[in-house]
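Can anyone check this?
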Amino acid sequence: PFMREDLVDVIKLFYNNNNARVVNLPTNGLLPKKIDEGIGRLLVECPELAIHLNFSIDGLGATHDKIRGVPGNFNKTISSMELVKRKYGDHLKLMQNVTTVVTPEALEEVFELGVYLLKKELIATQFFEVVRGDPKDPATKNLTEEQLVSLRKRVYPLIEEQANRLFKNFSGVKKKLAKTYFMGFIRFVNNLQDQNYFGPSHWGMSCTAGETTIVIDHNGTFRSCEMRPPIGNMQDYDFNINKAMQSEAMKKEIEEIGGGSKANCWCTHGCWLMSSLKFNPKALLFRIPWAHYKAKNDRVKNFELPELDIEAIENYR
């Protein structure tokens, strides 16, 4: 997103005209100057806007560089995160996170990566995502069920450490409830992702793609979900989002996604899992706390972050 010279102006349009109060910005962290300028402007010009700045890091050092195809990528991204923390780390409206896509190539480094980021105090949260859809290289999706189960168990203490830091100013029952819901939410989403990693598996709730969400591409075409084909162009609907979402094309799309015997569009896409979850009271009230309870054996009492050679990680070249 930071390659766009007009990024801040676009966000301001939605902030001023549509009352948008949360923006999620994914980034590979390779444009520190533009990230600095963009975040600095947004915090001043959109004072009520909550900003989730999500960096992509898929492995440690050379592994991340190889996956991304950019020499020095890992250290450049970390430097960008350190810059943001140094200049804006005390701003209550800014949350810095990391998303890690788990592949066989980096599987053994995922836990250590999580420890490293927490030791450096660079993140509020880190999400461990499985590869979604059909990648160009099928080998990136060659994880076994046993590997996924082991991964979730190993990183769960890191999720709890994130919760401890997020809710450090809470106390008593409020803190316990906040931690339970945060950790249960993560585990619930991860469970559904893992179930769908090997093929479509019903979520146990409706997918609201096209009903509560819309994807608009760079050329004006729109779709219900990133993983489904375009179904129209905003130009044909006067660039009116409501008209596009209420169109016959979108109604047909919604029917194909979740209608009767055609309800076979189930995936690992975290954004759509989470957006659908918001509109499912049963999941919000019962399934999330239950997911936390079922994961009780993965929790580690008195967990402490293990020692780590940070200098060696950062001097890998």
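Reply from J.R.: I decoded it. The beta strands are 22-27, 50-56, 94-102, 125-130, 215-216, 221-223, 232-233.
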